[in-house]
Structures are given as C-alpha cells and as structure tokens.
Design goal:
single chain, 92% helix, 0% strand, mainly alpha
C-alpha cells in the first residue's frame, strides 16, 4: 500500500512546487495569456465593427447607385421629352415655312396671271383698236350713201373678223 499513499515530504514538496508554479503563472503567465486573449477579442470586435461599417458603406453606396440611376433615368426621360418637343417644334416650324412659301408662290403666280391677263387684255384692246381703225378706214374709203350698202359693209366686216379669230 505504500505505492498508493505518498510520503508526506513528497506531498509537501509537490505542494510547494505547485504553489511556486501557480505563483509564477499567476504573476507572469496568466496576465500575458489574458492580454493576448483580450487583444484577440479586441481585434475580432474591431474586425466585426469594420465589417459592419463596410456593410453600411456598401448599403449606402448601393442606395447612392440606385439614386443616381433613378436620377439618370429621369434626366434621360426629360431630355427625350425635350428632344421630342424640339423635333415637333422644328417640324411645325418647317411646315409653317412651307405653307408660307407655298402661299408666296401662289400669290406670285396670281400676280403674274393678273399681269399676263392685263397684258393680253391690253393686246386685245390694241387689236380691237387696230381693227376699228381698219374698219373706219374701209368705211371712209367706201361710199356709204345708202342703208343697204352700210348693212352690207357691216356684215362683210363681221365675217372678216370671224375668219381672223378662227
């Protein structure tokens, strides 16, 4: 049974050595281990905080990106509306210009037609005057003593005029 029960001296020295090791560990080892664990905890919590901040920044960037996309789309829609309005305005202006130009051409054509009409009328008047002078000349040359001879002369002149016109 000797093997199962240790000697009291051995037990004393084991207790002294255990106390000494415990004291050295408590004085130098445990603070160092505790400091390293605290450093590691601090680094982990700092990393978690940095990850949370990064996640918030990423969420903010995503919101900012969505806002910018929305603004860009609204700006694009506004520009498209402005371009369509400008196109419509330009088309209306071109149509109005074309109408004005067509009206000017029509007015110029009317003026020319009236001028030509007046020229033709003047020419007809001149022809009528020449014919009248010719008739007067022929009347003066011929002896118009009787009514029958006057009627014969008028009929003859009307026939001549009809032949000249046709």
């Amino acid at each position: 049974m000797d093997l199962m029960l240790p000697d009291s001296g051995l037990l004393f020295w084991m207790t002294v050595i255990f106390g000494l090791v415990l004291f050295i560990l408590a004085k130098f080892g445990f603070p160092m281990i505790t400091g390293m664990v605290e450093k590691r905890n601090k680094r982990i919590s700092d990393s978690l905080e940095a990850a949370r901040i990064a996640e918030e920044a990423l969420a903010n960037l995503q919101q900012e990106q969505e806002r910018l996309i929305s603004e860009t789309r609204s700006e694009q829609a506004r520009l498209m509306q402005e371009a369509a309005a400008e196109r419509d305005r330009m088309i209306a202006q071109a149509q109005e210009q074309a109408r004005a130009e067509a009206q000017k051409i029509m007015d110029d054509a009317r003026v020319r037609i009236n001028e030509e009409k007046e020229a033709v009328m003047q020419e007809i008047r001149n022809e009528v005057a020449l014919v009248s002078l010719s008739i007067a000349e022929k009347v003066v040359r011929k002896d118009l003593s009787s009514d029958a001879s006057q009627k014969e002369l008028v009929d003859k002149l009307i026939n001549e005029l009809e032949n000249q016109v046709t």
